[in-house]
Structures are given as C-alpha cells and as structure tokens.
Description:
By secondary structure, the chain is α/β, with parallel strands linked by helices. The protein has helices at 11-18, 55-61, 63-75; strands at residues 3-7, 22-30, 34-41, 46-53, 84-89. 31% of the residues lie in helices and 40% in strands. The relative contact order is 0.31.
Amino acid sequence: MPAILIRVAEADALTIALHGRYAIERELGAGGMATVYLARDLQHDRLVALKAILPEIASDMGADRFRREIRLVAQLHHPHIVPPALGMDLG
C-alpha cells in the first residue's frame, strides 16, 4: 500500500484538497504530530496510507522541513516502512 504524506494548515483543508483524488475510508491512528488515514486513490482504485500533519504542527514545521521529511522517508528501506508515493503541501 503506497503512503501519501500531506501537510495541512486547516482540518477541513484535507477533505477539500483530496476531493476527487482520494476518499478517506477511516482513521488508522494518530500521534503527537500527525493522523494516518486509510484512503482510496480514486484514480488508480487502490488503498493508500495517508499521513496528514496536524495543523498546529504544520504551521510551525514549514514546507522545507516537510519536504526534507519526505526525502528522508523515501530513502528508508525496511519491510515495515512504506515509502512515500507522493508529498503534498496544502498549507
């Protein structure tokens, strides 16, 4: 299952931004920095893990740090780590 990392500035921005591209099926888990959702990639009809950075973290984190996280995670190779397929900055 591909992973999608998203930085959001507002809670409702996620649903609006994903309209027509991904449909959130359910929340998989939440932590101090982000919430992970099971979502359907509507274009490819496949399930993806979607990580949405919490709004309060997103405003402090900045786009550059978010992009660095995506690049770093993309370099990891482990059977229990899903590499990001896409990074989106919505804030």
